[in-house]
Every structure is written in structure tokens, then in C-alpha cells.
Design brief:
Length: about 950
């Protein structure tokens, strides 16, 4: 970048700082930080830190920044272009009533949406308890013994169930999975896509008309079916299990409140989505999927599980159980690539369930069933239609001629109703699904659409119909098993009671409200409130994801603009927004690479090289995409070991399908040899997958495609302003260069796409309602703001590194001795010198009012710090002072000035109960334990529990009440 353009950029940044728009990273006064590092301007800093060979000279075609009011007006125009339909289509999505207290006190509450994943359990007790409630509800509702803390969406959860069945079947000779033809169409598409990568076959058929085969390792049964029908699967399940076939159910949770649960039918695994329990349709997401199974299979469950353990004082304490970040530990041997899931939606579901209780949920279920009965009785009197006799729960399958079906759907469209159909059946079938929000007005409009004015006949009047219908569910399929009888599900029946409980939990969690969350590779930065408003507007929150694209022009325009902006920033030619997590983006990109090679007749290229410093999901994603994985070591500088690289290229060159790299690297440096590595891969016929988790360090500075990257995902919940949600929701769109782009994911509901990749998740845009957040974020930044955001993030990391290096040496440095946006500190010597490890430092930081950095990754025994661009110098200094103070304590322990077995780090974190107990028996005083520096008392955050006994929790796992 020429100095002249940098000068004009500086002027633009100065103008931005006067606009009044609260842009993250642009309000901070960077001059004191620059001066501390010996620079006079950001331009000079950029010249020194970013290697010349990776710096872009591209003139970005991005808009000028908008003010908050301008962005709100523009995003409002886009929302207005999405025609608000009342969806009765079903297909896995239902409208529901999101209570106002749930929106205000949870969904839009920064105490709930800004925390990090609860790996530091002592300061995450609130959301861990909420997730424990979610697990208990799911396990009891499905009549299974254990459940996890949510998955991403129903279709991908069904794919996880398929993988799970293969693991527990323990017969690698079986390579077929059966799925009922009555499953949701998007679920079938995802199953086929995921199975193909593993060389499995998905057999799709009517379970009652096909012979069970010895080749099947598992099966998936819908309950109710896509057409609303409910079946007694017990004889089928018994026969399947005699043949060693593991059986999964895909269920509607509301139906299970009154129907015989899958566990009572002998299910091995149960999945579904909790969308209809409190959340809008959101044009497909985010919603929390669920997964439950038997206790015997607990250690094979994908995703995260919350367990109940105890702290050092014997108090009950929640934690993530059984190493549920196991893909970072087992890597290519991991059973799943799921890292984060849908924590915030799962928490919303938990509180929705607490409010309604068992009786309230059953009342809603019976209402939906009776609504279907009323309409079936009315339409069934018209000879033009045949209503499937069922038995059914809340969905009607209505058969007529193809011409009349098209007429009815169009007439319904004109009246603002969206009715369903399946692509896999004749167009003469109409699906009508009912939900808790359907009222008399909707019913009258619906009947008028079908009966065309005949509604006024006495026999069809609604009051009479309501008097005539009763529940019509088979006695043998009615639920006899009780659920949610525990006190927690019975004591919150008023808004006041529940909101007080919600806030009592929020007070137990550390969030960005309390201070810096310095996690490396996780980018826990502040999201401006202005970015969050539009996601809940009707135009973005209410559309059904199967609505024809022509009727959602606002979403299409928003996605087109976002795709253009992301292509400008990365250099890729196109993006897909289908992946609803970074790990799903990895999988989508690797599947695209695999199909690219297959299309070229090079299906033998099934080897993926991955540096040992990579994110753990990289290894798992590569295996799930059908690749064999070879791990490459790093050298002492944090770069890929050159000798090992040469040997790998010589040995595997002909089989090489992909190299997976993160840039900047997870060691926090701009690796100078990256372009050479990329060239080597291309010369040997492979492609390069770029993990874009660290894109926030190169926005507007480097373009991955210019470095030779072929495919890569962006973690929108890290780089582009989506809050972390305590562990999700997120989004991981994937970009690719032109000749790989055709192999990105497709979807059965996206008729405009001609891509050759299969479906990855339930809806074409994944967590679609999060995209307005990203649109507003980039609109506020503009083309100059993105550059300053990245430079500020790098500046902050180098400032922290320079202050802490004399105390905790920085392990890796790039060109000129600088780090990128994060740094790795060496605390390993203190294990021997003072008997203290990184986990002790992490818990001691809680006493200073901080969340810990990343522990023991990518280097065992080290700390990885990413201060982000949104923190102030004051906050960075506070954190540095805390770390320096801890260093003083380490020295005192090593020198014998503090008792080696009884020191503040040994007993951290110090709770209020601990420091106020009558007797204090430690060798240091209470004040040093709880208030180690003077300023701590000014905004003290008290951990809810003492240090948690993780060993006890794993020896005696308790994962539900």
C-alpha cells in the first residue's frame, strides 16, 4: 500500500471518529499504544508488522461507512421487502409465541448473549444451570436417560445420529443407513450428502413396506412424519434391533408432550429441533437441535454435555462434562466436529419450558391437534379434497388434483398464507401444519382458501366445528410416562418469579459487561447494540425458509450485498451462507474440495495435511469429509517445520487433496513461508483450505485468495460482530475461487442454485437471521473501518505482548519480532518452580475480575491471549497489571515467601462465602485472596462457586436432574 493512500486513509479514519457512529475499534485512541511500541502512526505500524509479500494492493469496492440512523433506515428497507407470510407449511418449522420477557431478559440481554463458551466453569454457573435444565427436559421428554446441551439444527443433528449409530453398532462391515421416506426432505438431503463423503449408502423407503437388511447399521424414523402421521413403531424397532440395527427417531418436541415417547418404543437415539418452543422461524435459524440417548452411550454423544459435580468445599457445581471439547483433544479420532452449538437458543427453550411447565406444554399440544381436527372435518366434507385419515398430530396431508393444489397454494399466497408441499411427492398434495399462534381469523382465511366462500354454510361454521371435534389419537400412542416433575419445572409460573430466577442465573456468569475476555482464537469482542436490532424485526424473523425466494427480496438483496463485501475482503469469487457454525463451514469447504477432485477424475486425492497447531475441528472435519489426515509438526518459531513439509510432499504428493492452514497462524504470527507452502500444494495438484478463524487480523490488509487459498470459511461470530451467545449461535459461510465454487453446498429449497454440493443443514441460509447483524456491522465500518479494526486488534495484541513479555515470555514472534492479533505466553516454567499450572493462573484471574485466556492450546502449558480491537488501553492495562501481580505471587511461592501448598493461586477463585466465613485458616489474609489489587473492589465480580472438582465429575457423571 502506498504511503499516499495511507495518508488519505488516516484522514478518512479521523472523519469517521467524528461521525458519532460507535464503530468497534474506531473509538479507541491508538496514539498512546503506538507510542508505547515506538510508532507514530498506524500506517508506520502496518508497514512494520504486516509482511510486504502478503499485503494487498487491492482497491476495495466497499461502501463508505453509515451512521447508526442511516444503517437502521437501510436495513429497515430490506426488511420491508420480505413479505410477511403466515406460514402453515410445517416441514420442521412452526410459528410460536416468543414471550416478551424472554426477548427482553434473555435473547437481547447482553448478560446472556455476550459470554464465552463455559470452559471456565466457576464463572459460568448461570448458563450451565440453564443448559442442565435443557438437558433434563430433553431427556425426560424423549424418555431417554441422557441428552446433550444442544446441536446446530434438526437435519445436521440427524446426520450426527447417523454417525452415532455407526459408532455404537460396532460393525464396520455395515455401510448402509435406512431413512424413512416420510422424514423431512431437507433431512434426507443432508443425510445423503454426509453419507456420500464416508462411502455409505442411505436407503430411503417406507419402513413398513421394505425388508430390514443385515447391511444396515442404523435407521431414522420420523415421529410424527412430514405428513403429520403418527405410527406405532414398536414392532419395527424390536425387529430392527434383533438384527443389530440401531434406531434413531426424529421428533417434534411438542408432540412428545402427549404422545408415547421414542424411549418407550426402544429408541437408541432421539433428535429434533426445539424451534417451536419459544423462537421465531428466523428464515431457518438459529434454533437449538436436541440429541438424547441411553446412559450406556454417554461417551459417544456428539457436542457438549453439562454435568453436575462439586467444588472443593462440597457445594454442587456445574461443568462441561467428559471432556466435551473432545475434538480438540482427539483430533482426527474425534467422533464429531461440533465445537460450539446453539447455547443461547437452548437457554431460551429452557426458560420457555420452565414458564409453561408440563401442563402448559400439553395444553399447547392439544390445541394444535384440535386445530388440525377442526380443519380436517371442514375440508373433508368437500369432495374435491381427500384428507389423510391419520392418525395425525398437528399436520394435515390434503390430496387433490395438481391443478387445484396449485390454485389453492396461489390463492393462499394472495391471502398471506404459505402452505406446504414436498418435492418428493406429486404436486397434488398440500401440507397444512398448525401451531399455538393460530387463531379464529387464520382458520377462517384458511377455510375460505380451500372452500372458496362455502364457509358460511351452517355445517361448516367454526363454532359448530369446535363443538363437534374431539381429540382423535390412538390410545396405544398416548403418553403414559410422566416428565418434568422436578421442583425446578413447577416453581416459576409467573413472569416475576421467572425473571427473578433468570437474573439470579445471569449474576453467576462472567460476560463482556464485566470486562475483557482475552481468549486467543475466539475473538470475544464487543458487539454494538445497533447491530442487533434488525434480527428480530418481522421481515427477518418470521419468514419460513422454504418460502420461494422471489417473495423474500429483502433477504436476497441483503445476502447479495454481503456476498459482494465478503468476496471483496477475501478475493474469493462466491460464498455460501448455509453453514451455521465455523465447523460446518470447514466441512462444507472440504466437501467442495473433495468433489472438485472427483469431478476431475482424481478421486484418489483423499489426503489432507494439517499443521499440529490447527484448530481441533480441522482434523475432525477432514475425516468427516472423507479425507485421510496427516499431521505436520511445527518448529520452535511456530512455523510449519520445513523438513517435515518436504518429506510429506515427497511422500504424499500424488495423493494430496488439500492442505488446511490457518492464517495468521494459531501461534499468533504472520508466517512468512505461507505463500511458498501454497505454491508447493498447487504444484502437486492439491488445493488449499484456509481456516478463516483469524480473519479479524487481516480485514482490508490481506486477501486469502491472493495468497493462493482456494476455499475457506469465515467465522461471523468472531470477525463480523455476531455475539458469541455463551457458545452459539454462530455462522460459518464458505467462499471459494471460481473453479471450486460450483461444488459448494446446494439445498432442495434453493432453486436458483446450480451448485453440485449437497445440503449441509436444514435451511438454505443456515442461521439466516444473524446475517442482518453482519450487514449492519460492515455498514458501520465501511471500507476504511475494516482496515483500522484489524490494525487496532494487532496493535492491542502487541501492546499486551510487550508489557507481559518480561514476566511471561512470548513464545512466538513473526517478522520483526511482532505478533499478529494474539500472542502465546509461556507459563510452563512455573509448574516446576512453584507447582502452579495455567489452570491455576486462570482461576486466580477470576479474583481480579477477568476471564482467563485460552489454556494449554496451541501449546500445552501455555496461555494464549487475544485482547481484540474493542477494548480500551485502560482495560488492557488492568489486565496486564493483574497478570504482573500474579507473576509476583508466583515469584513469592518459588522463593518460599508464600506457602507452596497454601497460597492464593491454590485456592482461587475466592468466593464471597469463603472470604466471609468465621474462621480463616490460610497463610495469607482474606484481602489478598479476594482483593489482590486496589481497583478490584471498585467492580468486584464474585465467582458463584469455588474451584470445581473435575475428576469427581467424570468419575460420577450426573447430567440431568
Amino acid at each position: 500500500m502506498q504511503s499516499g493512500s495511507q495518508s488519505s486513509s488516516s484522514c478518512a479514519w479521523e472523519a469517521l471518529s467524528l461521525s458519532g457512529t460507535p464503530i468497534p475499534g474506531l473509538e479507541t485512541d491508538v496514539l498512546p499504544l503506538l507510542e508505547a511500541l515506538g510508532f507514530s502512526s498506524l500506517a508506520q505500524f502496518e508497514e512494520a508488522v504486516i509482511p510486504a509479500e502478503v499485503r494487498t494492493r487491492h482497491v476495495f469496492l466497499l461502501p463508505q461507512p453509515l451512521t447508526e440512523d442511516q444503517a437502521k433506515e437501510r436495513i429497515g428497507q430490506l426488511a420491508a421487502q420480505n413479505r410477511p407470510f403466515r406460514s402453515l407449511a410445517g416441514l420442521g418449522y412452526r410459528h410460536c409465541q416468543m414471550p416478551e420477557w424472554l426477548r427482553r431478559h434473555v435473547w437481547e440481554n447482553i448478560y446472556w448473549y455476550s459470554p464465552y463458551t463455559p470452559y471456565q466453569a466457576e464463572i459460568s454457573q448461570g448458563r450451565l444451570e440453564a443448559l442442565f435444565i435443557f438437558q433434563t427436559f430433553v431427556a425426560e421428554l424423549t424418555h431417554m436417560e441422557v441428552a446433550n446441551a444442544s446441536l446446530l439444527d434438526e437435519a445436521s443433528a440427524s446426520a450426527e445420529a447417523m454417525l452415532f449409530c455407526y459408532r455404537i453398532a460396532q460393525d464396520p462391515r455395515r455401510k448402509q443407513f435406512f431413512a424413512s421416506s416420510e422424514c423431512l426432505p431437507q433431512t434426507l438431503a443432508v443425510l445423503q450428502n454426509r453419507a456420500e463423503a464416508l462411502s455409505w449408502e442411505v436407503v430411503i423407503d417406507d419402513p413398513f413396506r421394505t425388508r430390514l437388511r443385515e447391511e444396515w447399521f442404523g435407521a431414522l424414523l420420523p415421529y410424527p412424519t412430514v405428513r403429520g402421521t403418527i405410527f406405532d413403531y414398536r414392532p419395527w424397532v424390536q425387529e430392527a434391533q434383533k438384527k443389530g440395527i440401531r434406531v434413531g427417531f426424529a421428533c417434534d418436541p411438542l408432540a412428545l408432550t402427549i404422545l408415547l415417547p421414542p424411549g418407550a418404543m426402544g429408541a437408541d437415539v432421539v433428535v429434533g429441533t426445539t424451534q417451536r418452543l419459544g423462537l421465531p422461524l428466523f428464515y431457518g435459524g438459529p434454533h437449538a437441535a436436541f440429541f438424547s440417548t441411553r446412559r450406556a452411550f454417554l461417551r459417544s454423544v456428539p457436542g457438549r454435555i453439562v454435568g453436575l459435580s462439586r467444588d472443593l468445599f462440597g457445594n454442587p457445581a456445574f461443568r462441561l462434562a467428559l471432556q466435551t471439547r473432545e475434538q480438540h483433544i482427539r483430533r482426527e479420532k474425534a467422533t464429531s466436529n461440533i465445537c460450539t452449538a446453539q447455547v443461547l437458543p437452548a437457554i431460551a427453550t429452557a426458560f420457555y419450558v420452565l414458564y409453561h411447565g408440563r401442563e402448559g406444554l400439553q395444553k399447547l399440544a392439544r390445541k394444535c391437534h384440535l386445530l388440525a381436527r377442526v380443519v380436517a372435518r371442514a375440508i373433508g366434507k368437500d369432495p374435491r379434497y381427500r384428507v389423510d385419515p391419520g392418525p395425525y398430530f398437528d399436520t394435515l396431508a390434503i390430496t387433490t388434483t395438481p391443478e387445484r393444489a396449485e390454485h389453492v397454494r396461489k390463492h393462499a399466497f394472495d391471502r398471506g398464507l404459505f402452505l406446504g408441499q414436498r418435492e418428493t411427492r406429486e404436486t397434488g398434495e398440500i401440507l397444512v401444519a398448525f401451531d399455538e399462534t393460530v387463531d379464529t381469523g387464520v382458520l377462517e382465511t384458511l377455510l375460505d382458501v380451500f372452500l372458496e366462500g362455502n364457509l358460511e354454510r351452517d355445517a361448516w361454521k367454526l363454532p359448530r366445528l369446535w363443538e363437534e371435534v374431539t381429540e382423535d389419537l390412538p390410545a396405544e400412542l398416548l403418553r403414559k410416562e410422566s416428565f418434568c416433575e422436578q421442583a425446578i419445572f413447577r416453581q416459576y409460573r409467573t413472569e416475576a418469579q421467572l425473571v427473578r430466577y433468570i437474573h439470579s442465573l445471569a449474576q453467576k456468569d462472567y460476560s463482556l459487561v464485566h470486562g475483557l475476555i482475552p481468549l486467543g482464537s475466539c475473538t470475544m469482542k464487543w458487539t454494538p447494540a445497533a447491530c442487533l436490532v434488525a434480527s428480530r424485526w418481522e421481515g427477518f424473523a418470521t419468514p419460513h425458509p422454504a418460502i420461494p425466494l422471489d417473495w423474500q427480496e429483502g433477504y436476497q438483496e441483503l445476502v447479495a450485498e454481503l456476498e459482494h463485501w465478503l468476496c471483496e475482503l477475501t478475493g474469493f469469487s462466491s460464498f455460501t451462507f448455509q453453514p451455521n457454525a465455523g465447523s460446518q463451514g470447514e466441512l462444507a469447504g472440504l466437501l467442495a474440495i473433495r468433489r472438485y477432485h472427483e469431478h476431475r477424475g482424481e478421486s484418489h486425492r483423499k489426503l489432507c495435511l494439517i499443521p499440529d497447531s490447527a484448530h481441533g475441528t480441522n482434523f475432525a472435519s477432514a475425516r468427516l469429509a472423507g479425507f485421510d489426515v496427516v499431521t505436520l509438526p511445527s518448529d520452535k518459531r511456530g512455523c510449519l517445520d520445513r523438513e517435515a513439509w518436504k518429506q510429506a510432499i515427497a511422500q504424499y504428493g500424488e495423493k494430496l487433496g488439500a492442505l488446511m492452514v490457518t492464517y495468521p497462524t494459531t501461534h499468533g504470527i504472520f508466517e512468512e513461508s505461507m505463500t511458498r507452502l501454497v505454491q508447493d500444494v498447487h504444484e502437486h495438484g492439491g488445493l488449499v483450505y484456509w481456516d478463516g478463524a483469524n480473519m479479524n487480523a487481516i480485514l482490508g490488509l490481506c486477501r486469502p485468495a491472493e495468497l493462493g487459498m482456494d476455499v475457506g470459511q469465515l467465522n461471523l461470530h468472531k470477525t463480523f460482530g455476531i455475539p458469541h451467545g455463551g457458545g452459539g449461535p454462530g455462522a460459518g459461510p464458505v467462499g471459494a475461487i471460481a473453479h471450486v465454487a460450483p461444488y459448494l453446498p446446494s439445498h432442495p429449497w434453493d432453486r436458483r442454485s446450480d451448485r453440485k454440493g449437497g445440503a449441509l443443514v436444514s435451511s438454505p441460509l443456515g442461521n439466516a437471521s444473524l446475517l442482518p447483524i453482519v450487514w449492519v456491522y460492515l455498514s458501520l465500518l465501511g471500507k476504511e473501518g475494516v482496515r483500522k479494526v484489524s490494525l487496532t486488534a494487532i496493535l492491542h495484541a502487541n501492546y499486551v505482548a510487550s508489557r507481559l513479555d518480561p514476566y511471561f515470555p512470548v513464545l512466538f514472534r513473526g517478522p520483526g519480532g511482532w505478533v499478529a492479533h494474539e500472542c502465546v505466553l509461556d507459563v510452563r516454567p512455573w509448574r516446576e518452580a512453584a507447582g502452579v499450572g495455567p489452570e491455576d493462573i486462570a482461576r486466580r484471574l477470576m479474583d481480579y475480575g477477568f476471564h482467563a485466556p485460552t489454556i494449554s492450546w496451541p501449546v500445552p502449558g501455555a496461555l494464549m491471549i487475544e485482547p481484540t480491537e474493542t477494548e480500551t488501553k485502560e482495560e488492557l492495562d488492568r489486565f496486564c497489571e493483574a497478570m504482573i501481580s500474579i507473576h509476583t505471587e508466583l515469584v513469592e511461592i518459588a522463593q518460599g515467601k508464600l506457602d507452596r501448598e497454601d497460597h492464593p493461586l491454590r485456592w482461587a477463585p475466592h468466593t464471597a462465602a469463603m472470604v466471609t466465613q468465621e474462621r480463616w485458616e490460610h497463610s495469607y489474609d482474606r484481602k489478598r485472596g479476594a482483593f489482590p489489587l486496589p481497583w478490584v473492589a471498585l467492580r468486584k465480580f464474585w465467582p458463584a462457586v469455588g474451584r470445581i472438582d473435575h475428576v469427581y465429575g467424570d468419575r460420577f457423571p450426573v447430567v440431568r436432574w
